[in-house]
Amino acid sequence: MVSTRAQTAADPEPDFPWGGAPCPVLVADPAGRVVRCNDAAQALLPGARPGSRLADAVPAWLAAAHQAVCLPGPRTAGEPDAPWSGMIEARRLRAHPSVRQDGAVAWWLVDDTDHHLAREALRTERERTAFLARTSSTLLSSLNLERCMDVTAQLAAESLADAALAIAPARGRRLPVVTCLRGAAPTSALEAVDADEVPGLGEALRGFPPVPSRWIDPAAAPAWLIPEDFGPVGAIVVTPLPGHGVPAGALVLLRKEGGAAFTEEEEVFARLFAARAGAAMSAARLYAEQRAITEVLMRELLPPVLHQITGVDLAGSYRPSSDHERIGGDFYDVHPATAAGEPSLVTLGDVCGKGLEAAVLTGKIRNTLHALLPLADDHQRILTLLNTALLNAHTTRFATLVLASVARHGDAVRVRLTSAGHPSPLIVRADGTVEEADTRGTLVGALPDVRARTTTVTLAPGESCVLYTDGITEAQGGPLGDAFYGEERLKRALAGCAGMPAEGIVEHVQMLASQWLGSRGHDDMAVVAISAPRSPHRDAGHDRTPGGCAA
Amino acid sequence: MTTLPSALRLTTTGTADTVRIQITGDLDHDHADLLLDEATAQLTARPGIRELRLHCAEIGAVDSMGLSVLLMIGRRTAAAGTRLYLDDRPARLTRLLDLTGTLDHFTASGM
């Protein structure tokens, strides 16, 4: 083709018509000497003069290509789009040979720089995309903040810099910092330092956009920022780790002196990485906070361990809902008498609704009842004050509860019971009779007025009073799986509990309800038993003042 | 007439001065809010109605959230000068109202 064009071109030099062609053309003979060059080739390869040795005039890769083309041997005529290419100066060139009739080879040097750059860019882009995908999948599989910071520092040190620091917002006056050197394991520390010592770090931790690295003087970096044995720092990038609404922290990238500085492109990429890392760290932190809140609330909600108080047997059991979002409805408390001979107050209740709101309301009720203890004898008054404390214009969330004032009188135990909209306590007599306590009242927290009727029952030794929440009677199960456990079954079960100690009754009721449920889900279930002990009463106060009760 | 796609189905009909909501299904923790929204919407859309009648014959389980919603509707009807009726109550609902000491409240303001 080349020779055809050469022949047809109207050129003063029919043998070498490409003198002014923009593409560099170089002709060399089989002995490896330069025959001709056009102007473009001359400019590209100043050493290439007619007669000079090819090996001296052109880069080694082109000389080798020439040798390969000139080697005697079978070769397809018209040859090749042979993939000879290499660098000349800063340009990448592809060399296309065409062998002439006299055995000389004309080398056409085609600039391939842009194509090559595009390919390189594509490869880099693919690597980065794969890296970002790996970042997301590695980070999002963890809801542990420390682990997220470790992984962030490690990934960044592997792919973005010689060393990386993941820094979380200050905890008190200390900065949680995870440092990772390339190829090493991340180390974490709490640094008692000022973030503003590092240009751009304070801003990044407050969520401001990143400061370009060229503005950060590596020499100004404080010692804590630079890992041990790192040597002089060449370049620093500080990038915020954006979180969900609030900054999750900052990422600091360090490169050694003498290495490449951060290009603008690399800084943009660091930000893309930081966006993913920040989202993961933020999710992990929100999760940790939520868990901490739930734990604190649940700890508050846990009922007390009951035991004997002033000669009365007490036992309680609380089985939280099987559905964790629904915990928080039931509660019970015991407030022991402050003076001998005075009644202790036992409360058991059920708050409307589930979850956090119910938990908060439960806490409010327990605290209010505690504050009202000096009025413990006057149940109506307690309920009225509690109702007023709970009433608010926005909700009709209410609670039902039972108040029980319990005092020992001789061998018997006297219990004053008031139900505020709650299932009536059940009295288990010594002969197996089960009675419903005759008390009724209004639930608290929703209506402007509450009324309640109090009843007093006397428990002989071995007799018990059982307080329960509707989680027991409304346990759904049984042979067909759709029946409520119900009050009647509960009464029959309690009839078999005559003479049992308080703890035995509570265990028995919970066990029966569990059996009834089988593997089905359930609401909170709470049971409290108040029993008059069978053993002779040994209360010191009672012994000391035998006539005290009558006085 | 409104029909909501859930375990709780509400059918609202009305005359000049009465709104009647027929409740079919469970009035419980997951669904009770739908009834509150519907009743509130009716009270807002038609100020001055004389009666809000909740027809309860087809009502299923009513838990504490269900009762809380009934109490809230009671509060809102009272504020709007509308009388609230719980019609055709099944025995179970009456027992719940009785146990919680709210039966008088609902019947004194209505039936």
Overview of this structure, please?
The complex is a heterodimer of chains A (551) and B (111). Chain A is α+β, with helices and mostly antiparallel strands and 551 residues long. Chain A folds into three domains: 2-111, PAS domain (Beta-Lactamase, 2-Layer Sandwich), CATH 3.30.450.20; 117-294, Beta-Lactamase; 304-544, PPM-type phosphatase domain (Phosphatase 2c, domain 1, 4-Layer Sandwich), CATH 3.60.40.10. Chain A contains 14 helices and 23 strands. In chain A, strands 12-13-14-15-19-18 form a six-stranded antiparallel sheet. Chain A has a five-stranded antiparallel sheet with strand order 2-1-5-4-3, with helices on both faces. In chain A, strands 8-7-6-10-9 form a five-stranded antiparallel sheet. In chain A, strand 12 and strand 13 (344-351) form a beta hairpin. The N and C termini of chain A lie far apart (131 Å). Chain B is α/β, with parallel strands linked by helices. Chain B has one domain: STAS domain (Transcription Regulator spoIIAA). Chain B has four helices and five strands; from the N terminus they run ββαββαβαα. Chain B has helices at 32-45, 64-80, 91-99, 103-109, and strands at residues 9-14, 18-27, 51-55, 59-62, 83-87. Chain B starts with 8 loop residues before the first strand and ends with a helix. The relative contact order of chain B is 0.17. Chain B: This is Sulfate transporter. Chain B: It comes from Streptomyces fumanus.
